[in-house]
Structure prediction request, 471 residues.
Amino acid sequence: MEMLLIKLEKSTDTPLYEQMYNQIRRDITDGKLPVGMKLPSKRKLGDFLDVSQTTVELAYAQLAAEGFISSKPRKGFYVQAIEELAYAQPMQLSVKRPVEKIEDITFDFSPGKIDTESFPFTQWRKYAKDVIDESSKDLLLLGHPHGDWELRQEIARYLYHSRGVDCTPEQVIIGSGTEQLMPLVIRILGTAATYAIEDPGYPLTHHVFFHNNREAIPIAVDEEGMDVRSLQHSGATVAYVTPSHQFPTGIVLSAARRTALLNWASSGDEHFIIEDDYDSEFRYTGRPIPSLQGMDKGGNVIYLSTFSKSLMPSLRIAYMVLPLMLLSRYEKAFIHYSATVPRLDQHILARFMADGHFSRHLNRMRKIYKRKLQVLTEALSSYAPHVSFSGDEAGMHIILTVHTETNERSLAIAAKKASIRVYGLNGYRTAPKEGEPSFLLGFGGLSTEAIKQAIEDLMYAWSIEKGEESI
Prediction:
């Protein structure tokens, strides 16, 4: 038996037993310690290295567990033949971190951005602190697969009072986003379903249908919303619509179209409407538009919404309200599924809503976004008649139409050269459309001062001068 020369650094953060284990393992794999060699006893090696027997014992135990050494009763520890082990020395891979392309964008008119400066951090932090406590240790376990009752109850109550949605908490299903809930809806509606989608419309939803191998028929959107007459002749059995604030045009589905759409849904046993109410909280003129679900008498409307616009996109909490007939199908199809939203987040939001903070936050944000919208439209009005806008009654974006012969792509490139990102309406169509170029201008993530400067810079980039009445 030879004594082991092991260099231990007592001043480092690495435990001594781990240093000892690493050096002995390396000597074995390098062949410096031959097969069958007896290692020093724990006591002798501890005395030699001036460490405790416990330190040596921990190192030996790890080596034995991995098969580098073996223990023989009343004899000691011996080096194993490593060629008998299914062991591969870790390769030192040189992995280059991908270089992210950072674009020089000063103003981004993204319709998906929110006002992060106005988030109620103080109240949210309070509820997070209350929930993340030892008294809530049961929340570490899996909850109800549809989402915890507390949050579903608050959502059902909120929807009834704010959107006229008539439902029970049992009908509410919590998910981590519309893109996570939609495939579940698609599955319970069956393979025979054919979908009608708005054109232009929400691209993510179009991708969901495509990736789930479902036929999606584009139906044109005009000044009254989805063309229900075209829908009736399309052969579709399910219509996906954003009736309260059509995305991206901002059109509100007219009363006549709402009635026609509901009549179409009730005309077939497997006809359904998927109502995506993505930003209904923010309406600035007139009374709130009632939900289709609240008008539905036949149980044909599946209601979808999210907290991405009203609170924060990163919260990843969305929900759907299923008709009772589909609820039973859902329960059978997904009986073994678990909720995709962490229970701690669910309970923070539930308490935030129960104590009235959510409603107060919405009221405050409605005023903030209304002010931003006013600043945006006033800035654009200065450049009339060269530009016009629409969809300014609700939501967090408008449609800007530029009265020019220059095409949409060229204007977008010119804006980007001026460090401004705009979103062409053709990007939301199934096929590009000729004519005057139109753009989505989201204002949620820009300050009022930034909005003024952005419009001024954008018009300069497009060589558009102010109208005579503004000069």
